[in-house]
Amino acid sequence: MTDAPAQSSPDTTRRPDGFDLQGHRGARGLVPENTIPAFRRALELGVTTLEMDVVVSADGVVVVSHEPWMARAKCLAPDGAPIPADEARAHRIYEMPYERIAAYDCGRRLEDFPEQESVSAPKPRLRDVLEMAETYVDTHDRGPVFYNIETKSRPDWDGTLHPEPEAFVRRVLAVVTEAGVAPRTTIQSFDPRTLEAAHRQNATVRTALLVGTAGNPGLDDNLSTLSFVPDIYSPTAELVDDALVSAVHDRALALIPWTVNDPDAMTRLIRLGVDGLITDYPNRARAVLETGAP
Question: Of 132, 148, 128, which Cα lies nearest the Cα of 44?
């Protein structure tokens, strides 16, 4: 008699089973980005992974935000007034304690997203997003949720808009580890230094190399910026063709492009064989996946 094979619990699953539908900044096309309501909407729409951006406050709190400052198009000052155009970058998150950050309302509706509903919401702590998502999974009939966390870092921002990469990543990993979701977490970045730090500090956490169009030298040169092979290659969608899909898969990497909002583009990429996609509109992607056509 032989023992039955051990089954992995959700907490030890490192990668999604099947196509990885990622909600960009939650569900940015429908609810203001990187807010608790946006992440909840993405979960309601059945995403596999919550994609988000993080920065760090003056008191060391990991905050979910795309910019390391209060963007005037997205946020109102604590007194409810608009942030003057010439002061936006003066509202630096790295110079404010989280208590101050939470006083800003960052749920303003953006004109670029006509389906987006306005909500009143602060920039949440990463731990708050994880707690909400894990509670949602526990109370709904769905599989585990995964997390794709982008560290918003650049060499010229070190020490002024964020900590240096080692300290930045250490804080992020501490949060996901304390929440018990590190095995389901990916650290992604355009900044190879962030990924190197993540790999050194916890090689079991997945990494994703983000790639844009500006000065793009190609797959091999992009991968050569790292001393190790990442788990995911994540280029802007317009770079993806059959040759890139084959080349990425030949290297045993997952290919997850961003940010894909048009149903025709979703269909094209799915037919090419991408492993997932990042979208502002999980509802559109879900419809494509369910019907096989826009």
Answer: 132
Q: Which residues pair with 233 in a beta bridge?
A: 209, 255
DSSP strands (E only) in the chain: 20-24, 49-56, 62-64, 146-151, 185-189, 206-211, 232-235, 254-255, 276-279
**Number of residues in the chain:** 294
pLDDT of residue 88: 78
Does position 71 have pLDDT exceeding 80, yes or no? yes
Coil/strand/helix, residue 107: coil
Residue type, 199: H
State the Cα–Cα distance between residues 108 and 92, nearest whole angstrom: 18
The residues, any chain, with a CB within 8 Å of residue 159's CB and separated by 6 or more, are none
| Whole-structure pTM value | 0.94
pLDDT of residue 293: 56
Domains in the chain, CATH or no CATH each? 13-68+117-291 (3.20.20.190)
CB burial class (10 A; 0-12, 13-18, 19+) of residue 26? buried
